[in-house]
Task: structure prediction
Amino acid sequence: MIRELAFIDVLYLIAAMRWTLALTAIAFAGGTIVGLSVALLRVSPMAPLRWAAMVYVHAVQGTPLLAWLFVFFFGLSIVGITVSPWIAAAAAYSIYAGAFLGEIWRGCLQSIPRTQWEAGASLGLSFTEQLRHVIIPQAVRVAIPPTVGFLVQLIKNTSLAAVIGFVELTREGQLTTATTFRPFSVYLIVAALYFALCFPLTRWSRRLEGRLHVAR
Amino acid sequence: MIGALTYTFNFRDVFAAWEFLADGLMLTLLLSAITIVAGFAIGTLCAAGRVYGPRWLRLAIASYVEAIRNTPLIVQLFLVFFGLPSAGIKFDAVTASLIALTINLGAYTSEIVRAGIEAIPRSQIEAGAAMGLSGVQIFRYIVLFPALKIIYPALASQFVLLMLATSIVSQISAPDLFHAASIVQSRTFRDFEIYAVVAGAYLALALVFRLILAAIYQLVFVRR
Result:
């Protein structure tokens, strides 16, 4: 049934943003766990661990996110499990975000001068103690601006979950288009809503970056 | 988990459709190549406009860049393919994909190139002026060329990400590699096999792109 695009549709679109945010939160949580492991493995003193983490990062950064979503949503049927869009999306986004966050955080860990590690070692700290008490507290400061920047990427990329039927902002836009047949207005509103989410974060990330440069 | 033990992988159906997949691969390559060239051109022009242009131009370019960088590509694609026809402008799926991808890459490229341009010290430009170079010559030899050399790694990564992002055009039925995969999937029901193979194909493609981009760097920036 085709009806007019009404104010209530806009409210529905705004309401659908909560699923975009929920998905972003899940992806970020999963990505943090994976990313932290990847970053630590990449600076580990054991070469095979570093290589394994590097292969993981290159594999994920060299394949489309869409492929991961489809593999988890359709592909897992081979093990006899029917996967809900939630599980499929959570798994795919954790893998995806983990690879990118892992690379970002590795860079932050490595931006801390070698001498800091050596100073820790000369105080008799073990590798994990050096990480925990010397390197990570300094690296976190460096990590915040690019992490916020990646959060913007993540919010935008949650739109791809629409293709496996996950009803978030983009999917809600598709559904609204189907009933009102006003694709231009609907997608413009959808784009504006994404912009409202992402732009403040972009600005914030840039400000944090500026502050960091001043502090140095 | 029992299912995993009893499941027989069957890649035969997937490889039987290789000609079909190869057609999709060709479009993926074509979309990526055209978008990279056009997006790079737009991005460089916008970067120059943003640094040297009059105030209104700087504002216009900044709005374009922020609007694109803060909205998802798939929504931009839907706007061009589904939205614009209601304003009387119609494109086929491939043209719409090219337009959306180029606009998208142009915005990202312009930010990267601008960072490079701004990294060139003022004294270099003054030195160029002191040697009697014209404005265009200064921009070309002293600003743009070294700037591109500085930002080349970031640019190359962006191009590879763009190639992967072209998979999104499958959602408006542009017959690229990913679209071919969904067709094969619906014909054979070999869900896992087809997406595993296609993911491998993209991975190989990303590697090839990196090699080509590294070769271009050697040719353009090193052998001189």
User: Anything to note?
Assistant: Chain B has a mean pLDDT of 92.
